[in-house]
Design a protein that fits this description.
By secondary structure, the chain is α/β, with parallel strands linked by helices. It has a single domain, classed as TIM Barrel. Helices cover about 40% and strands about 15% of the residues. It has 16 helices and 13 strands. Strands 1-2-3-4-5-7-10-11 form an eight-stranded parallel beta barrel, surrounded by five helices. Helix 7 packs parallel to helix 9 and helix 8 runs antiparallel to helix 9. The longest helix is centred in the middle third of the chain and has 25 residues. The chain is globular, with a radius of gyration of 21 Å. The chain starts with 7 loop residues before the first strand and ends in a 21-residue tail after the last helix. Bound molecules: beta-D-fucopyranose. The site of beta-D-fucopyranose has 12 residues, from loops.
């Protein structure tokens, strides 16, 4: 069996991580990441996203690279304060024009742009008014979405509302290690969370109302995923339960996002856990939040492994010291995509798109001028084989977006984590396609059938035709 003919093969990246936030003669407004990059110790090594991959000026070269790798789709995001420097009101025409040019170049290259409306670069001007804690915040977002949709929806048909609320609220407002760097109590965290959910719902409504072409809409959440320790029914059930239950006050509990969006209610166990510190739900809110979406996006990198313990409860199995890990120290759990997509599909019966998956490797340019990254080829082979297995078992997975097309600014980790299929030398801005990039091209062109190869590593780079 190979992948369905209409399966979409793509790569993803995000505005702040590649564009360079100051590469437009400062016409853009600042985002909370610009603000936090100025704080000593916030980002590893004092790195910033001010220049990043200079994609703002080099997007044409980057689109040519994407074309050379046969990408069918590219998931990009829009930097909100680039188009609306104050977050609302006056438009920066040059900023909007950049996204129009980017979308046009992609389409000319035969690559479908899938647009994420918010990938964490929140306008400082709105943060100063309370940001996600302000009860107007979902309307601010909807106004911004309307502007973008009016400009781009004659060419863009696939939209994501918010990228990973668990990160921008959980890491940004609860643990504080992501921008805006707040450490709030549960009550405030849930207020921000609820406003983000409302923003998602209002964005879906806005896209449906103003899109010039029929739109396909999803979100790209992330959450703690689980795989069963064995294929026994008991371990599978334990992993399923672990995935959907609210375990603690973390925003990484899958149901805290999925249930409001897909079932129109917060999960009971979570409401019980938070008690009076739960989200401030007003009449009508849940209807706004649970607007019909077309697919569930999933950003998945790794999972915990779960078995059933002696009392019949899910128990997390710890990984031994010698367990394979990426440069980020994330465990390599190839079954993650297979089981997560299966559990989600069984429960919500919605098409699934893998909106992010990949790994960081400490890659460098070798003496032969190329970048050899067999671990990435191996990792992707294993994880994407899980997608294939899930499809074989009847899970409706529509596409796969590798993170990321190029090395980039990895938030609080700065430039220390390289996730790209393309290596970026941040001093010279030279791009070098890694072996895994050529492998991915082969994978796309073969519609996934090179996964069958006994040795996937043989598919780079000489037979890639690049
Ligand atoms: C995800 C983010 C993305 C990138 C990857 C590695 O959580 O959405 O921007 O940083 O992790």
């Amino acid at each position: 069996m190979s992948f369905p003919d209409n399966f979409v093969w793509g790569c993803a990246a995000a505005s702040y991580q590649i564009e360079g936030s100051t590469q437009d003669a400062k016409l853009s407004g600042e985002s909370v990441w610009d603000m936090c990059c100025k704080k000593e110790g916030f980002v590893k090594g004092g790195d910033t996203g001010y220049v990043a991959c200079d994609h703002y000026n080099r997007y044409q070269t980057d689109v040519e690279i994407m074309k050379s790798l046969s990408l069918q789709a590219y998931r990009l995001s829009i930097m909100w304060p680039r188009v609306l420097p104050e977050g609302t009101g006056k438009v920066n025409a040059a900023g909007m024009d950049f996204y129009e040019r980017l979308v046009d170049s992609l389409l000319e290259a035969g690559i479908d742009p899938w647009v994420t409306l918010f990938h964490w670069d929140y306008p400082v001007a709105l943060f100063n008014k309370g940001g996600w804690l302000n009860s107007d915040s979902s309307d601010w977002f909807a106004d911004y979405v309307k502007l973008v949709v009016e400009k781009l929806s004659d060419r863009v048909t696939h939209w994501f509302t918010l990228n990973e609320p668990a990160c921008f609220i959980g890491l940004g407002h609860q643990t504080g290690n992501h921008a805006p760097g707040l450490q709030l109590a549960d009550r405030e965290v849930n207020r921000a969370w609820h406003n983000a959910l409302l923003a998602h719902g209002k964005a879906v409504k806005t896209i449906r109302e103003f899109s010039k072409k029929p739109a396909r809409i999803g979100a790209a959440p992330c959450f703690l995923t689980s795989v069963p320790a064995t294929e026994s029914q008991r371990d599978i059930e334990a992993a399923r339960q672990y995935l959907f239950k609210i375990r603690d006050n973390s925003m990484f509990n899958a149901s805290w996002w999925l249930e409001p969006v897909l079932s129109g209610k917060y999960p009971e166990d979570g409401l019980a856990l938070f008690g009076e510190n739960g989200p401030p739900i007003r009449e009508g809110d849940m209807d706004i939040i649970s607007q019909e979406i077309d697919f569930i996006g999933c950003n998945i990198y790794h999972s915990v492994t779960v078995k059933e313990d002696e009392s019949g409860q899910p128990e997390v199995v710890s990984y031994p010291n010698d367990y394979p890990r990426t440069h980020f120290n994330w465990p390599v759990t190839p079954e993650a995509l297979r089981w997560s997509s299966k559990f989600l599909y069984e429960r919500y019966n919605k098409p699934i798109v893998i909106t992010e998956n990949g790994l960081s490797v400490n890659d460098w340019v070798a003496v032969d001028g190329e970048v050899h990254d067999p671990q990435r080829i191996d990792f992707l082979t294993r994880y994407i084989s899980g997608v294939k297995e899930a499809i074989k078992q009847g899970v409706d997975i529509r596409g796969y977006f590798q993170w990321s097309i190029m090395d980039n600014f990895e938030w609080a980790e700065g430039f220390s984590q390289r996730f790209g299929l393309v290596h970026v030398d941040y001093n010279s801005q030279k791009r070098t396609i890694k072996d895994s990039g050529f492998w991915y091209k082969n994978l796309i062109e073969s519609k996934g059938s090179i996964l069958e190869a006994t040795n996937p590593l043989q598919h780079w780079p000489s037979d890639a035709g690049a």
